[in-house]
Amino acid sequence: MTSSDTPRTAFVDRHLGHVPDVDAFAAGTGFDDLEALVDATVPAGIRQDEPLDLPPALDEEDALAELRGLAARNRVVQPMIGLGYHGTVTPPVVRRNVLQDPAWYTAYTPYQPEISQGRLEALLTFQTVVTDLTGLDVANASLLDEPTAAAEAMTLLRRATRAGDDAVFLVDTDVLPQTRAVLQTRAEPLGIGLVDLDLGADEDPDGDAVAAALDGRPVFGALLQYPGASGQVRDLRAVVAAVDAAGGKVAVAADPLALTLLTPPGEWGADVAVGSMQRFGVPMGYGGPHAGYMAVRDGLQRLLPGRLVGVSKDSAGNPALRLALQTREQHIRREKATSNICTAQVLLAVIAGMYAVWHGPEGLRRIAQHAHRQVSRVAAAARAAGHDVVTTRHFDTVTITVPDADAVLARALEGGVNLRRVDDTRVAVTADETTRDAHVDAVARALGAEAPAGDDLPAAGGPLARTSGYLGNEVFHRYRSETGLLRYLRRLADMDFALDRGMIPLGSCTMKLNATTEMESITWSEFADLHPFAPADQAAGTRQVVADLERWLAEVTGYDAVSVQPNSGAQGELAGLLAIRGYHRSRGDEQRDVCLIPASAHGTNAASAVMAGLRVVVVACDEAGNVDVDDLRTKIEQHGDRLGALMITYPSTHGVFEEAVREICAAVHDAGGQVYLDGANLNALVGLARPGRFGADVSHLNLHKTFCIPHGGGGPGVGPIGVRQHLAEFLPGHPLEPSLAGNVVGPVSGAPYGSAGILTIPWTYVRTMGPDGLRRATVRAIAAANYVARRLQGSWDVLYTGRNGTVAHECILDVRPLAKAAGITVDDVAKRLVDHGFHAPTMSWPVTGTLMVEPTESEDLAELDRFCDAMIEIRAEVDRVVAGEWIVAESPLRRAPHTAEDLVGEWDRPYDRRLGVYPAGTTRGKYWPPVGRVDGAFGDRNLVCACPPVSAFGEPEAAPDEVSVVEVAGEEPALVR
Q: Sites of the modification N6-(pyridoxal phosphate)lysine (predicted)?
């Protein structure tokens, strides 16, 4: 059955918020119809009239059937390739109740802690897993992947040692090859010299290799792999001591599962540990998304990139969690930022943390011992066949010398197993929790031997065997029954506010519908269980998804080429700027290192520019929120042939379509620069205008915004870049993907196609919307923002509008006059909105003391009106403060949000209890925040970054007398059921 003869409603009508009377909706924006609104809002000079050249829309069933056909073109082969990617089993209770649950995957970054306690607790659990396994003091709440985490560690160590420009960074030659490549990409623009550190085949190398590699040069740090890519497990204490004696610090890329059996880096002198938590229940997904991790020694926590969950208290003195320290540093520090926080994988970190909760220390140890046993059987078979096993001390990987590597790989594939080709005469074999005896037997046959039973094989680690305990907190011991973990996950989800509860009107972040149909395919084995370095012919379906999406995104944006490799918006920004930098350098214009950035820009822009080795120069904005063209021209003239690029967000971060965008682009081009257009607001352009056609040279696109990949509580994201033809050769390459190996610019992510495992989400979105549906979504998004702005006139001032008094897809509400008149802050309005059942808009950005509202196309008219009613009601409460009826400190605004405890506790406030806890328009099914207003300053002064007892946050599953102390082999006593 085709889409033209189905009785089903078109998907686009379900994606768009239901508006019974479109004409009345248009009238609410001040126009006769929506097309008239678009004509008045989008400048004629950038409009496109021709329809998008995209496939016509399919209904949901037909789109999924087509996607099933692509999935069938993939061949899932048992992965024994290694290189940081492993087969794993997502516990079904976690898969269904986290990965497939909109309460988790539609949540936003937990900047509003009062309504994020569930995911904050889950992230604190993740951090505790990391610190316990690594033996270090503080961990962040995830990074993108292992290679980018290693790159962040490199720059962290450079800052920590305050080394001179001539200090080098040592890189273990046994590091993962994709990590080495990403390090090179990140190091070169910053002027960091990478020096190979060859530790040879010794199990216990001394420090002489460090001195030989340095050859008298100063050093600020080193990256060691533990175990190495070859599988070798080394005692690295002497190497760490040698680096320390030379004035450097050490980062270790460590396999977290190996750390259940091996002495952790924190116990032998490492300063930083990084790695991937993929094998903790997160599917490979042909490369991602996965949760990277970073842990540091005490004293380095203020240099940690990304997000950090800490413990504070709420207004009643109860324990409460929040994001701590430098969580939003790139918005505050801008061009002085040292990292970019849009580098988290929250949903995947939650899965990894819950995998540890489910298995506990004893379960993780069993899984690790299984992997070690299985690869040990392979090693024994190889020796029996007369092959040299190069890896002398191993955890889950061995490298074997064979006469013909290709022949061994072919025979193994006949047995249903993928091995890794190291070179012509070496293969590597990696085992994991999914490796069965039949797989080991197939590898043994490929090597010309039989696999031994494995009963007498040596234990992992030898002299490096772990003796310290880990995961002793009770959360890792209470939930052994599925009932228990199911209820625990439900309790955490109930503490949070996500799109499944109500509107999240965040400006710039586009929290719109992530349709169930779009999400279904991410757990299909054909997509989820592909190793990113499997032979290309085994991934034909996924590669077709990539090719389709790159082609469709190029059509939507007007660019000539697209790369989906960047696995976040931040990585997309970096990749786009590196493309511009590569282009200038190819023309001999190495001096073009100035990046002009408007004052209104995303803070991430400045941080990314610094990471790309560019010097940031800020361009002023005028009173209407537009780029000040006169100041732009002054800055262009001032910097002359040093001008490299302009970064501009369009529509602007102020929520307007700037009329002078073509003039701005032309001025930059005339001066020899390139235009980077931040695609964060592309959902106001799709089907109406194309950046590549009105002057931009490169854009990153936030697929987790415009193209429906959900935010997942702060990750995953995908940030592909589109470029015009002259920049195509500077798209990111990858050493392990032949089609990308020759690219001028190196990789920005660990996998060739980034987070390929979730690209089926935007694929399905485009396939079900079609060209007309995508345009309708854009028009409806613009209309919704203008509807809200117009309804709130008279109660709230809209800070910026375009030439016809309209806004783009978002509007900025000015709270600053109320701060002067009554002491009311954006925090007060934001927290009071929680009582009405809403997540707050974006606070104090891009203008301090304002709220930026983006209603999206997916909210229906009733929800828009409910939000407007709440904002009008809150303004009425402000007026009562202004009139002197309440003092601000005792008003419902300052005492918000109100908890269920406030409902039943003593009431000594000057306003009615019902008004406080059930403001006008609130329904019986209202959301109750689990904590009152969180004290952020207290949290920063009293940073705690490890799991408190579960009892601190809710009722335990077991009474204290049901808990006993048992001993897990090789560990300290721990609490278990």
A: 705
Closest by Cα among 594, 577, 676, 667 to 631: 667
Identify the sign of the CA torsion 554, 556, 557, 558: positive
Q: How far is CA 780 from CA 38, 505, 710, 711, in A?
A: 10, 15, 20, 21
Shortest CA distance to 836 belongs to which of 892, 786, 902, 904?
892
Our CA dihedral for 235, 237, 240, 241, rounded to 10 degrees, sits at -150
* d(C-alpha 944, C-alpha 313), whole Å: 11
pLDDT tens figures, 78-122: 999 999 999 999 999 999 999 999 999 999 999 999 999 999 999
180 in Cβ contact with 171 (< 8 Å):
yes
CATH number of the domain that 290 lies in?
3.40.640.10
Domain assignment present for residue 135? The answer is: yes
Q: Does 144 map to a domain?
A: yes
Tokens of 276: 């991937």
CA distances for 4 relative to 56, 62, 720, angstroms: 10, 11, 32
| Residue 108, in any domain of the structure | yes
Number of domains forming the structure of the chain: 1
Cα angle at 290 between 287 and 293, to 5 degrees?
130
Task: Reduce the secondary structure of 245-305 to three states and give it as a string.
Answer: HCCCEEEEEECCCHHHCECCHHHCCCCEEEEECCCCCCCCHHHCCCCEEEEECCCCHHHCC
Alpha-carbon gap, residue 606 to 596, rounded angstroms: 9
Tokens for 712?
């997942």
Q: Please answer whether residues 694 and 662 qualify as being in contact, where contact means their C-beta atoms are separated by less than 8 angstroms.
A: yes
CA distances from 627 to 602, 622, 666, 782 (A): 14, 6, 14, 21
Four-point Cα dihedral 397, 400, 405, 408, nearest 10: -80
Q: How many CB atoms lie within 10 A of CB 53?
A: 10
Smallest CA-to-CA distance from 64 within 14, 3, 9 is with: 3
Distance separating alpha carbons of residues 370 and 434, to the nearest angstrom: 9
User: How far, in Å, are 43, 796, 807 from residue 804 at the CA level?
Assistant: 10, 19, 9
CA distance 807 to 369: 60
CB contact at 8 A, 247 and 220? yes
- Let me know if residue 561 belongs to a domain: no
pLDDT at 922: 86
Radius of gyration of the chain (CA): 28
Angle between helices 540-557 and 760-791 (to 10 degrees): 30
CA nearest 804: which of 46, 48, 38?
38
pTM of the entire predicted model: 0.95
Query: Phi then psi for 758, rounded to 5 degrees?
Result: -115, 10
At residue 229, the 3 state secondary structure works out as coil
Nearest to 243 by CA among 214, 272, 265: 214
Rounded Cα distance, 829 and 827, in Å: 5
Strands, E assignment, 815-901: 842-843, 850-853
Four-CA torsion 47, 49, 55, 56, nearest 10 degrees:
120
**146-158: b (≥16 Cβ within 10 Å) or e:** bbbbbbbbbbbbb
Per-residue confidence (pLDDT) for residue 775, from 0 to 100? 98
Strand 168-172 relative to strand 219-226: parallel, antiparallel, unpaired? parallel
pLDDT tens, residue by residue, 516-527: 999 999 999 999
Range of the domain at 304: 99-311+326-355
Confidence of residue 177 (pLDDT cuts 50, 70, 90): very high
Beta bridge partners of 723: 561, 698
